[in-house]
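Hello Y.,

Per our agreement to keep a running log of every chain we model this quarter, I'm adding this entry. I've kept the format consistent with earlier entries: sequence first, then predicted structure.
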Amino acid sequence: MNQDTICAIATAQGGAIGIIRVSGPQAIEITSRIFTPSQGKPLTEREPYTLTFGKIFSSTKNINNIPQEKRSIPSPTIAIIDEVLVSLFRSPHSYTGEDSTEIMCHGSSYILQQVIQLLTENGCRTALPGEYTQRAFLNGKMDLSQAEAVADLIASSSAATHRLAMSQMRGGFSKELSNLRNQLLHITSLMELELDFSDHEELEFANREELNSLASHIEQVISRLAHSFSVGNAIKNGIPVAIIGETNAGKSTLLNTLLNEEKAIVSNIHGTTRDVIEDTINLEGITFRFIDTAGIRQTTDTIENLGIERTFQKMDQARIILWMIDPTDHKNQYEKLKSQILPHCEGKQLILIFNKSDLLSPLDKEKLLNMFANLQTKQLFISAKNRENIDTLEKILVQVTTLPGINQNDIIVTNVRHYEALTRALDAIHRVKEGLQLGLSGDLISEDLKLCIFHLSDIIGDVTNDEVLGNIFKNFCIGK
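Predicted structure for the entry above:
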């Protein structure tokens, strides 16, 4: 464990208040060197969980050695940088588990940088991304899955992502994994006990029927957690909605209209969009990730063909597909594309959109609805250019979104690292069940049990190495 004392600005630029966090064995002492309470004892002698008002001076000397009556005298070496509040936490009762202080200044970037400079001159070093949370993990204040939830909480952009991050931070996921590990350890210990008495073949400490029943239960729980990732990933990163169709059907215009910005280039020239363009919006607390794709057509342009290949890839990844049709050429477009598009729509929500509705009469619209009635999917007339029925489209998107109601007690996996570890654990428990059914020896079954425990332990950080920790915490923001 690094014994450096670290400091960093913990608040975003531009606010009225700025907070600097200091953590480490000398946090209180170093803060005391640059901070003078307005009255009473110095910071080093104060009780934890207290808030102290005072001043920070620009002198690089220990300001506490300067008589109180001289500190207000203007001097090139004794200038007030700011009047601040300092909160005090003593180990182990702090976020990091170390001695810590938080200095609340005015939000001026100049003031904050001056305070950081004073702290580093007096023995601090600037913190690395995520170093406070990493120290909290290493000091046992939280497990690794809870530490990762801190980053998710900071990045949460909707009510659903906030609830999921809070659930993970409160340890719901960790408790579930801990229960599984305890059950697996119980099985493993019985297996290991049998191996110790392997010369007595008649001894069987682990009842195979009970083990099989327990393994089935563990398999179901791990499978449920792993399968929840599809929902969790959609909530965290946005429900993928692919906008597909022929060239010049109005796909890019629709994307720009939904986003209220000129994200995609709109042109009358066919094949303008040659790569996928993605962006997100929030509708009624649900994040949607819209994907504008290259128009599907026969072309000899190599680059455009690569874009069309990606169109089909994005269709496979999407949960909702918006098939846009230009009603002025609807019959030709439908016949050309149905064999290419419909196979990719199985198990997904397909919405058929007739664009340029301002060019159609009521009779034209009725004929179109009758013609495409066999698709048995939602159909909507819009004018992306004139924003006609865009509100209706947004309401339909929310209606067809099949996401369960989420509360803070639900355990849903949102992290790719956790999902990969769970799938490996699931493979291991599958082999345990197969081994039990085939009557394999206890040493072979025990090895797969240990692998399952290892992968579950990897999620909460019991067996995680420094390289994994580095990859996790490098994506955190400075000051957290």
